[in-house]
Amino acid sequence: MSCINEYYSAFRSPFNDILGLVGNSQHYSRCRELELNVLDCTDVYGRKGLLKQCAVEYSDFMECLFNTKQKARVAAMQQERLRQYYAGERTKKNFYAEAPKLDSYHQTYTQTIG
Fold first, then answer.
1. What are the pLDDT digits (tens) for 18-72?
2. Cα separation of 74 and 80, whole Å?
């Protein structure tokens, strides 16, 4: 398989094989399949095609690793909540949504199996 890292060494040695285990995301179960999709795509197009032909797979993999879009979405929701608070649409009491009742998950779970 090809390597995603742009600092890939052209020289093979036992040290590269050992340290190559550190540079992948197979230990992170959430991103495992996405990394394999990127590696399959780079097998077809090569490392030069990583940012052109494999851009969709690569961006999905990077989002899985770093959660940049998810963090931006959370920040936008927090800013909107603050805007509503300063505009008087929210009060301190309803600044956040009401938390679920204690053990509410357990009660609904036992009702479905009972």
1. 776 666 777 778 889 999 999 899 889 988 888 899 999 999 999 999 999 999 9
2. 10
Cβ distance 93 to 85 under 8 Å?
no
Q: What distance in Å separates the CA atoms of residue 109 and residue 106, rounded to the nearest whole number?
A: 5
Using CA atoms, how far apart are residues 112 and 114, in angstroms rounded to an integer?
A: 6
CA distance 77 to 88: 17
Which pTM value belongs to this model? 0.65
* CA dihedral for 100, 103, 109, 112, sign (positive or negative): negative
Question: Mapping DSSP to helix (H, G, I), strand (E, B) and coil, where does residue 31 land?
Answer: coil
Q: Report the alpha-carbon distance of residue 35 to residue 54 in Å, rounded.
A: 12
Residue bearing tokens 């999709």 = 37
Is-contact 83 90, C-beta < 8 A? no
Distance in angstroms between the alpha carbons of the first and the last residue of the chain = 50
